[in-house]
Amino acid sequence: MINQMNLITKSLLSLFLLCFVVSGYTDASNYVVGDVFESKKRTSSVVLYELKNDLLTDIRRDPSKTGVFRQRDSRYTYDLQKGDKIILLKSFEKGKLFRVALVPKRESQRDNNTYYYVVPAKFNQLVFVEHLTE
Predict the structure, then answer these.
(1) pLDDT, tens digit, 9 for 90 and up, residues 7-19
(2) Is-above-0.70 flag for pTM?
(3) Torsion angle, CA of 103/120/130/94, rounded to 10 degrees?
């Protein structure tokens, strides 16, 4: 009886670990130029940068320093809204950042810049829609 419970416990534990490992591998997606993503949430932590240097500065900033306040200039960033789509146009630094085209759901009052830079680390909050071949 005890041997049988050990076997059941081991099999459940191994099944749990297998599910954990598989879910870890599915999060590490390969993003390809031409992929289209859509924001399905009202607020998203995906920030689009108009200037590539601003994005690189944010990436290289030391996150371990506390008490450092850095305010982003909101004129050069865009927070994705629900229904906005982005199209991956070009990959930089081996896929660590992308140049994207923004297809907004609503017309904005801002200038009509449609090209931005983004880090794909927060793409798990976006939904893959389609892959464009051209």
Answers:
(1) 777 777 677 666 5
(2) no
(3) 110
